[in-house]
Amino acid sequence: MSEPASISSGIAQRYATAVFDLAKEGKALKALEADIAALEAAMKDSADLRAMMNSPVYSRADQGKAITALAKKMDLSPTTTGALGLMAQNRRLFAVPAFLAALRQMIAEEKGEISAEVVSATVLSKAQADALAATIKDRVGKKVKLNVSVDEDLIGGLIVKVGSKMIDTSIRSKLAALQNSMKEVG
Known about the structure:
CATH class of the largest domain: Mainly Alpha
CATH superfamily of the largest domain: N-terminal domain of the delta subunit of the F1F0-ATP synthase
Structural class: alpha+beta
Mean pLDDT: 91
Distance between the termini: 35 Å
């Protein structure tokens, strides 16, 4: 992991732990989960939001006003709104993606779930996703939440990441392995 990424994840982890503890104490984990989904969607959809959060050009006050106004407009919980305001005040908005990921992981652990990142060559049907989730559940012994994305460059197959384990059954990786073995031969 690169140094800036590890710094960002360390900062995010501290904020996430505080927000999670407050939400758990206030029995507001469902609201926190909704806040996470809303913020992730907003960040995915808005290049301007991502730019504001990552740009050193904006002052602390401007970032704070913008993120607080956005949180109120999105009807985020007071805990999440306060955390975002504090992150803006401390010039830590760049860590929001890692903050949201850490919160998502803490909520999953609290529920006894594990998330699996799945990349497929085509869109998985409901039956395929359910069968994959059941197979992973049998292996890890926990309820599985799939985060599925599509990468047509895989040609076929899947890449499944659960925790630190990864299984790559994609045609692309098999072709790359075949190409490497052919280079070694001759």
